[in-house]
Amino acid sequence: MNLKKGARGDRVKALQDALRNKGFDPGLSDGIFGNGTESAVIAFQKSEGLLADGIAGPQTLGALAMDVIDDDKRPDATAKFTVTVVSDMFPSTPIGNIKKHLPFVLSALKKLALGDQEMILMALGTIRAETEGFIPIDEFKSRFNTPPGGPPYSLYDNRTDLGNRGPTDGADFKGRGFIQLTGRANYTTIGSQIGKDLVGNPNLANDPEIAATILATFLKNKERLIRGDLMINDLRMARRRVNGGSHGLDRFTDAFNIGQRLTS
């Protein structure tokens, strides 16, 4: 249920407390959704890249960790995602790649409390969109990363949004792994989180076990926002949380829907 200006009750008070815990002061936690609460909701939505309409709907509540089941209460679904099920989600992928790499992916997700159906579907849909062969790989050269006749991946060299600092960061920190981790900033952040020197040795991102851990960690970092998207079946936005756009959305959606049908 959406919470908006004029609403009253315990859920509004819980919203006010959650906003305050995130650093967005709504004023009194009195259970009355007034101007202060609306302003705090808008400020929080802007900080999270959500539609800043002042209405606390599923995405906002999810980002605030409200109306989201506690991690230890989500049923583990890893056993449902057999090689047979996943091969149906990846109709063009050699089954040998799935047999080899699926255990790494499921294990990494389970370790980070992402072993429920929705987050497994999110992870597998992401692999289908990014690296459909179900094998960690280097990003291919294309007109988006390599200028005509120029050094490979040099269009990435000065991408400050990726944290790159000039030649040869584009090639050094090109997309790798299941999720196509890209850019010095992402290699630095994720590497620190998983305890691997990805900056010093970027090729580690293509090791199957490490690639699975990177995928799970990347999703964990965006978990609340992604869960908010999935609560309202906004697969486009969930995909955008990972890719920043809609590249591979058709494959992501196809895999997600097939897997959901087969495991529900």
Structure commentary:
With about 260 residues, the chain is mainly alpha-helical. Helix content is about 50%, strand content about 0%. It is built from twelve helices and two strands; from the N terminus they run H-H-H-H-H-H-E-H-E-H-H-H-H-H. It has a two-stranded antiparallel ribbon. The longest helix has 17 residues, at about 95-110. The two termini are about 25 Å apart. The model is unreliable at about 65-70 (pLDDT under 50).
List keywords for this structure.
two-stranded antiparallel ribbon, globular, single chain, 264 residues, mainly alpha
Strand content: under 5%
Shape: globular
The end-to-end span amounts to 24 Å
* Count of alpha/pi helices: 12
Tally the beta strands: 2
Order of helices and strands: HHHHHHEHEHHHHH
Oligomer: single chain
Helix fraction by DSSP (H/I, runs of at least 4): 40-55%
Uncertain segments? 67-72
Radius of gyration: 20 Å
Strand order of the largest sheet: 1-2
Main sheet properties: 2 strands, antiparallel
Average predicted confidence as pLDDT: 93
| Structure class | mainly alpha
Briefly, what is this?
Helix content is 50%, strand content 2%. It has 12 helices and 2 strands.
Present the secondary structure layout:
Blueprint: H1 10-21, H2 35-48, H3 58-63, H4 83-89, H5 95-111, H6 117-130, E1 137-138, H7 169-172, E2 176-177, H8 184-194, H9 208-221, H10 223-231, H11 235-243, H12 249-263
Antiparallel strand pairs: 1-2
Helix pairs in contact: 4-12, 5-9, 6-12, 8-9, 10-11
